[in-house]
Amino acid sequence: MPNTPGAIDGTGSAARFSSLFSIAADAAGNAYVGDIDTIREISPTGVVTTLAGLTGSSINTFPSLLSIDGIGSAAHFDSLYGIAVDTAGNLYVSEALGDKIDWGSLAPPALTSTTTVTGSLGSDLSSTVVFSGSVGQYSVNGLPAGLIFDSTTGTILGIPTIAGTFSATVSASNAAGANAVPLTLSIGIPSRLTNVSVRTGTSAGDNTLIVGVVIGGSGTGGTMPLLVRGVGPTLSSYGVAGVLADPELEFFRQTVAAPIATNDNWGGDTQISSAGNSVGAFPLVSNASKDAALYLTPASGAYSANVVGAGGTTGIALAEIYDASGLAYSASTPRLINVSARAQVGTGDGVLIAGFVIAGSAPVTVLVRAVGPTLSNYGVGGVLADPQLQLTQTVGSTSVIVASNDNWGGDTQIASASVAVGAFSLAGPTSKDAAILVTLQPGIYSAKVSGVGNTTGIALIEVYEVP
Fold first, then answer.
1. Strands annotated E in 286-428
2. Out of 3.40.50.970, 3.40.50.300, 3.30.365.10, 2.40.10.500, which CATH number does the structure's domain 10-105 have?
3. Which element (helix H / strand E) includes 273?
4. CA distances from 454 to 242, 369, 375 (A)
């Protein structure tokens, strides 16, 4: 059959070639030929396919005598002369009149990098998705807010503004085709203080159980959801004796005399129940229990929660404050930058223990202080004269001592950190207040304050995020 001018794809005798110059084969038995200005593939079953270059009757026309890089039919060759294929599936051709060597991939791009990209809310992210073989163009869909995609390099970059796990699809194409692969983006919430809890005896006056928080952080604004609980009766379910039978909860903003919110009995409030489930708080014993709780959305500032007994009653109570923002937390959401508790320090089971949680995936530097003598300068009576501080981490069912301190001794790093976080100054370098400056991994921690020689008195425990 005469050779019809032009290049026609087909199977067997239905295919046409114009002017073959060279041939190469790969390990799979495919043959590749240079047909003037076109790269053609011949499969083991005789199927002829044009991979790149001008097609059809245009092959012998003047515009083909140009050398232009591109994908598929967008590429032009100027008289192909030699052709070769390597073990990685790359094809190399030489152009007799173009005086150049070109290369390309024989197969659609295949993903060679991980299918999971991790980042942190509010932090720079840059991750390149890598495919084997030559890639002409990338595309993506499904990126979370704050991220963009470079279609030339295949790089995901930007600053995530929302946390969570997201599914995206990344596509890469070349002359041999396109490949779309699923990609998982895991955007974590930055490490931060998320909970403080204090269990101790409470009564009137200076012996009132008071838990304080400071809400804020650089670059944040708006409000923050908080769950605040004053637990008494439910503690009986956990074997605690002498509980406060009817706790009342008062929530104050600093410098405002009257409480901005109060609660006596929580009454099975569904919003409080839902918030408790979301933050992992243990359930209150029943909707009719006399435990107290509040769900609040305060703006940045300093606040305190007081737990007192109805009618002046006394007993053991647990005060808790939870960051309830969860996955709704964003780069601008205020966070707990300081948590504190002031209470009577006893002996044995009566020592002051403040628990706090650091959530996230990165370490956080904290300043922990047990203040006794300095409180006298602020009109507090009956202070703990010589507090000692022990910091432990709970790992499974085991408590591990992280650090401890008796007298802070005027440590210059602690003094500098106190200034940086806006903490009040300790009475002096020889005061018997205790303090620890330490970098902690995310986890569950307890700060225990006791008196040297089993002494008792009022003390303040503080935990600050150090920027």
1. 292-296, 301-309, 315-323, 335-345, 352-359, 364-371, 387-395, 398-405
2. 2.40.10.500
3. helix 270-279
4. 22, 19, 19
The alpha carbon of residue 195 and the mean position of all alpha carbons in its chain are separated, in whole angstroms, by: 17
Q: May I ask the CATH architecture of the domain 192-465? A: Sandwich (2.60)
In this structure, are residues 201 and 311 in contact, taking their beta carbons and an 8 Å threshold? Answer: no
The CATH code belonging to domain 110-188 is 2.60.40.10
CA dist., res. 235 & res. 215, Å (int): 28
Residue 265 one-letter amino acid: N
H or E element that contains 418: helix 412-421
| Ramachandran class of 46: left when φ > 0, alpha when ψ lies in -120 to 50, beta otherwise | left
Encoded tokens for 76: 């032009």
Check whether 229 has a pLDDT greater than 60: yes
Which residues fall within 8 angstroms of residue 62, CB to CB, at 6 or more apart? none
For residue 152, give every residue at least 6 positions away whose Cβ sits within 8 Å of its Cβ, in sequence order, or none.
137, 138
Which whole number is the average pLDDT over 332-349? 90
pLDDT tens column, 36-73: 778 888 888 888 888 777 654 444 444 444 677 666 66
Q: Residue type for 211, please?
A: V
Torsion of CA 174, 175, 181, 186, to 10 degrees: 0
Using a cut of 0.85, tell me whether the model's pTM lies above it. no
Residue 205, phi then psi, degrees to nearest 5: 65, -135
Domain with CATH 2.60.40.10 in the chain: 110-188
Strand 177-188 relative to strand 116-120, pairing: parallel
- Per 3-state DSSP, what percentage of the chain is helix, strand, and coil (rounded to 5)? 15, 50, 40
Tell me where in the chain the CATH 2.40.10.500 domain(s) lie: 10-105
Contact indicator for 329, 191 with CB cutoff of 8 Å? no
Give the residue among 29, 319, 305 at the shortest CA–CA distance from 201: 319
